[in-house]
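Morning!

This is the sequence you dropped in the shared folder:
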Amino acid sequence: MKTFITLLTVLFLAAASRADTLTLSSGQPASSVTAQSPANYRIHVDWHGAQGETNSLEVLTTEGQVEFDGLQKNPVKINNNEVPATLKLTATLKALNEEKGRLRLFLGRTVPYVTSSSPGGNSSYSQMSVGLDSTFLVTFGKPVVIQGDANGTITVLVTRLND
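The structure's back. Tokens below.
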């Protein structure tokens, strides 16, 4: 029994002395992985339309998910009735380290469309979400163009705020 305890102690000490050389599945040495200090992040989105109009939206969040739903300035007219349209931003941010992160972003709006009309001019309508849904890497503090075409340009800037 004494030999078994001695052998167990030797194995434990050998394993403990090699702990500093263990690697994680990511290939990084275990000793080099440190916990991130919590931080706030500012997500700023600019979009420029084909007719030159400029819009922006900015939210403050920590890591994780943020959602924004708001009414657009100009409602849509259907049969002389004003129907509200909304602006929607949904984002999930995961910091990979102090300088980079992964951002999943949906930026869009609801668009009303007529589902039926009656001879008296009354219409019923529904809303449909349309927009850009993408995941990409960001470098904190550096803007990235996530869409640029004939419809306009969308730029995202994620800034890590220090205490």
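Headline: The chain has two domains: 1-33, 39-161.

More detail when I'm at my desk.
O.
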